[in-house]
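re: the backbone from monday

yeah here it is again, tokenized this time
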């Protein structure tokens, strides 16, 4: 509902911080709060409409209609209360205080999990769960608000700071991020709808199993690269373009060091992983084989998309990411159309849907987007190979070789075996990256980060 506004807050905060413009920060906060308050009132209205029609709009058993209605009210009103406060997480992210964001999220989530288990063991049901989930979201947002308020004590909300032209500028920026995020969500989830319409719900489960590991990899990479955008916004506002280029090289290289071993693992040992995970449910080896093939095809397409995610964040930080949003949304549309054609007219089943997803991503994110990004950043092919591809290839080779040895010498047959492969591959990736991918300057930086805070301060003082 916020149409990417959090992404805009996340960019404009570091830009105005770099310019020491407190009035600009106040404009960002005030306009964002006004818009989110409007969304909160809209959400309340939607909640009431759904509550009044819950029994006629949805196929719910008569004895559960009242429970469902109460749940709608609880979740809707709690979400409306949390809506204006969500700008706090974007402000903290813009301040690059991810420690504060995570503390405010992890502690309430940990307590919520314990509380839910206790309530369910005592016989409470859906309404209790709805209250706990809704209240915990409000608590998380309140904690983030208090932390943001402490970090920006001079910034206040003022109706005099409302500037609808500036708000429109923020939303225009946010919509492009929204298109990118929605495109990614459609790529992952729209196939389930197509499968449900043409093939049935059992096939939806198979496809969801094949995509689960890829989705986990995607979430991990997005968390790994989240700090790029506000850092680039800050540097770009200071006209430090050479450092922005350096960040783009480094983060793409580090992303490759994560994606190449993980993708090779899913393609190579995907069948063993699926057999251990769901083999007893399907029993038929042919079903596992075809699911492993789907996993391999999807892994290739999504890994190519993920390889460009850090580049997307660089352009988001610079405010030049429109083409990413448009292209990702177009890829999502091609995936849907291709899936319908593959199932409805070519009778290719789930394999056809996998290829219909992979092909547009391979062309767009394997060819079109890298060319566009390099031209936008004035990066030559030789620079890209020298700074990113070659060191990432060398650094990931030990892990790739180790996966191949596990695959053909001793394929894992238990969860312990899978865990041993993952652990050993992780160690091989770290050692390979350290020995073959990192420059001496990068190694020095990592040593500095790993030092205890006391020694880090001492080292900084000595350098000065």
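seq for it, each position gets an aa:
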């Amino acid at each position: 509902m916020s149409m990417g506004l959090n992404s805009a807050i996340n960019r404009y905060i570091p830009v105005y911080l770099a310019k020491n413009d407190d009035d600009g920060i106040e404009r960002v906060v005030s306009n964002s709060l006004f818009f989110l308050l409007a969304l909160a009132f809209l959400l309340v209205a939607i909640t009431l409409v759904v509550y009044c029609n819950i029994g006629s709009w949805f196929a719910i058993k008569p004895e559960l209609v009242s429970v469902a209605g109460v749940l709608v009210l609880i979740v809707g009103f709690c979400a409306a209360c949390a809506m204006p406060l969500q700008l706090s997480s974007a402000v903290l992210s813009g301040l690059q205080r991810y420690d504060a964001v995570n503390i405010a999220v992890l502690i309430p989530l940990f307590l919520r999990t314990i509380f839910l288990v206790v309530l369910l063991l005592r016989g409470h049901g859906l309404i209790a769960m709805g209250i706990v989930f809704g209240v915990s979201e409000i608590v998380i947002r309140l904690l983030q608000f208090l932390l943001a308020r402490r970090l920006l004590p001079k910034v206040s909300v003022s109706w005099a700071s409302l500037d609808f032209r500036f708000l429109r500028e923020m939303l225009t920026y946010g919509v492009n991020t929204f298109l990118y995020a929605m495109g990614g969500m459609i790529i992952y989830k729209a196939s389930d709808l197509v499968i449900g319409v043409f093939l049935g719900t059992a096939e939806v489960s198979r496809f969801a199993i094949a995509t689960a590991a890829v989705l986990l990899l995607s979430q991990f990479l997005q968390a790994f690269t989240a700090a790029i955008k506000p850092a680039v916004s800050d540097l770009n506002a200071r006209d430090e373009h050479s450092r922005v280029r350096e960040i783009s090289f480094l983060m793409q290289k580090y992303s490759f060091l994560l994606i190449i071993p993980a993708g090779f693992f899913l393609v190579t040992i995907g069948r063993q992983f699926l057999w251990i995970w769901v083999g007893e449910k399907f029993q038929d080896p042919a079903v596992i084989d075809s699911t492993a093939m789907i996993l391999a095809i999807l892994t290739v397409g999504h890994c190519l998309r993920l390889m460009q995610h850090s580049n997307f964040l660089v352009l988001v930080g610079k405010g030049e990411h429109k083409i990413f949003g448009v292209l990702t949304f177009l890829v999502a549309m091609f995936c849907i159309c291709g899936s319908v054609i593959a199932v409805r007219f070519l009778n290719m089943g789930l394999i056809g849907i996998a290829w219909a997803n992979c092909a547009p991503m391979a062309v767009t994110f394997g060819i079109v987007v890298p060319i566009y990004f390099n031209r936008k950043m004035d990066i030559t092919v030789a620079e890209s190979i020298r700074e990113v591809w070659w060191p990432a290839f060398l650094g990931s080779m030990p892990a790739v070789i180790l996966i191949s040895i596990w695959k053909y010498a001793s394929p894992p047959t238990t969860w312990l075996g899978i865990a041993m492969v993952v652990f050993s591959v992780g160690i091989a990736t770290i050692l390979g990256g350290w020995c073959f991918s990192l420059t001496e300057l990068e190694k020095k930086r990592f040593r500095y980060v790993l030092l205890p805070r006391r020694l880090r301060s001492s080292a900084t003082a000595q350098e000065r």
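The CA atoms of residues 58 and 321 lie 39 Å apart. The chain has 19 helices and no strands.
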